[in-house]
C-alpha cells in the first residue's frame, strides 16, 4: 500500500509536463484567436466589388480613347479618356489600401474623400457618350461601369459621414494587434515545445 501511495504521489515526467504546458498554451492561442470580424469581411467584399468596377471603368475608357484616336473624330475626347484611365487606376490602387499610396494621398484614407473620387471617375466615364449605331455596345458598357462606380462612391460618402470608415480602421488595428499576439504565442509554443518533445522521445 505504501508503494502504491508513493507511486500516486510521484511527479510527472519533465517532458510530459512540458507537453501538457505546451498544449495548454496552444489552447490559449486558440482562445485568443476569434472568428473574423463581420464588419471587416463586409468591407473587404465591398472593396473588392469597387475595385472590379473601377477596373471596368479603366477598360471602357481605354476602348473609348483607342476609338477616338483611331477614327480621328474627336482627339479631345481621347485625351479626356486618358485622364479618366489614370484617375480610375488611382481608385483601384486606393482600394488596396497600400501604405505607400495612403502616405502621399492622405485623403484617400477617409471614405468620404475616396467616395468623391469614385463619383468623379463615374462622371468622367459617363461624359460625352457616342450614340452612333456602331458603338451601342461601348455606350452600354460606359453606362454600366459609370452607374456601378457612382453607387459605390455614394455608399462610401454616406458611410464616411456616418463614421463607419473610422470604425473599420479601429477594428482593423485591433485585428492586426490580435494576430500579432497569436503569432508571438505560437512562436513561444514552438520554441518551448520543440526541444522538450525531442528530449522526451530520447528519454523514453
UniProtKB/TrEMBL annotation:
Keyword annotations: Membrane, Transmembrane, Transmembrane helix
Please list every transmembrane segment annotated in the UniProt record, as residue ranges: 41-66, 78-95, 107-124, 144-167
Specify whether Membrane is a keyword of the entry: yes
Tell me yes or no: is Nucleus among this UniProt entry's keywords.
no
Q: What is this protein called?
A: Golgi apparatus membrane protein TVP15
Taxonomic lineage of this organism? Eukaryota, Viridiplantae, Streptophyta, Embryophyta, Tracheophyta
Amino acid at each position: 500500500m505504501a508503494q502504491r501511495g508513493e507511486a500516486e504521489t510521484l511527479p510527472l515526467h519533465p517532458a510530459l509536463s512540458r507537453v501538457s504546458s505546451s498544449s495548454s498554451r496552444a489552447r490559449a492561442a486558440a482562445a485568443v484567436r476569434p472568428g473574423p470580424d463581420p464588419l471587416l469581411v463586409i468591407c473587404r467584399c465591398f472593396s473588392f466589388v469597387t475595385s472590379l468596377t473601377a477596373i471596368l471603368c479603366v477598360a471602357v475608357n481605354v476602348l473609348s480613347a483607342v476609338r477616338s484616336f483611331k477614327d480621328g473624330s474627336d482627339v479631345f475626347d481621347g485625351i479626356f479618356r486618358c485622364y479618366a484611365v489614370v484617375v480610375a487606376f488611382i481608385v483601384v490602387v486606393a482600394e488596396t489600401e497600400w501604405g505607400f499610396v495612403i502616405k502621399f494621398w492622405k485623403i484617400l484614407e477617409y471614405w468620404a474623400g475616396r467616395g468623391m473620387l469614385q463619383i468623379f471617375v463615374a462622371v468622367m466615364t459617363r461624359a460625352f457618350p457616342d450614340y452612333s449605331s456602331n458603338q451601342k455596345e461601348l455606350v452600354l458598357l460606359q453606362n454600366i461601369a459609370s452607374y456601378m462606380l457612382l453607387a459605390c462612391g455614394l455608399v462610401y460618402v454616406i458611410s464616411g459621414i456616418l463614421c463607419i470608415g473610422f470604425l473599420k480602421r479601429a477594428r482593423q488595428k485591433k485585428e492586426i494587434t490580435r494576430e500579432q499576439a497569436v503569432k508571438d504565442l505560437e512562436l513561444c509554443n514552438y520554441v518551448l515545445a520543440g526541444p522538450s518533445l525531442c528530449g522526451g522521445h530520447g528519454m523514453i
